[in-house]
Write a structure and sequence with these properties.
Blueprint (H helix, E strand, L loop, with lengths): L3 H14 L2 H7 L4 E2 L10 E11 L8 E11 L5 H15 L8 E16 L4 E14 L1
Parallel strand pairs: 1-2
Antiparallel strand pairs: 2-3, 3-5, 4-5
Length: 135
């Protein structure tokens, strides 16, 4: 059976990759698990993910923290904040069903934006927390 972490990452990738409004903002094929060497800004990267046991006395469960990173070369924050808005909207709508797990809940935790002057880009990090249990 595929892990809850892997299934949630697949569902997140699918949801972000197929959203028409997000694609209109950043362009098609701009959601990555691993960024290609010559990727053009703006784009989104699925970041670190941590899974922990969230079982109870009667039910198995997994708590999953994960990051979504938004990247832009624009001098201001407008594109980043629009990307953040879309990512939050998409991920807080019901995601596609996971094959072997139920997604009990998915919550937005926080967002942070920064600028790298040397590399001339801006980055945003969004943290989410999900809880799953096996079907």
């Amino acid at each position: 059976m595929v892990s809850a972490c892997a299934q949630l990452q697949e569902a997140v990738f699918q949801a972000l990759s197929t959203d028409a409004a997000l694609t209109a903002l950043i362009g098609p094929g701009k959601v990555f698990d691993h960024v290609p060497e010559r990727a053009r800004f703006p784009y989104i990267v699925l970041g670190a993910q941590t899974g922990r046991d969230w079982s109870t006395a009667t039910e198995d469960g997994t708590e999953i923290d994960f990051f979504v990173h938004v990247w832009s070369r624009e001098k201001g924050r407008q594109t980043l904040t629009e990307m953040e808005h879309h990512v939050r909207r998409i991920l807080l709508e019901p995601l596609p069903d996971l094959t072997h797990h139920h997604l009990i809940n998915l919550r937005f935790i926080w967002a942070e934006f920064s600028r790298n002057r040397n590399l001339r880009h801006r980055q945003g990090a969004l943290k989410f927390r999900g809880v799953t249990e096996p079907k």
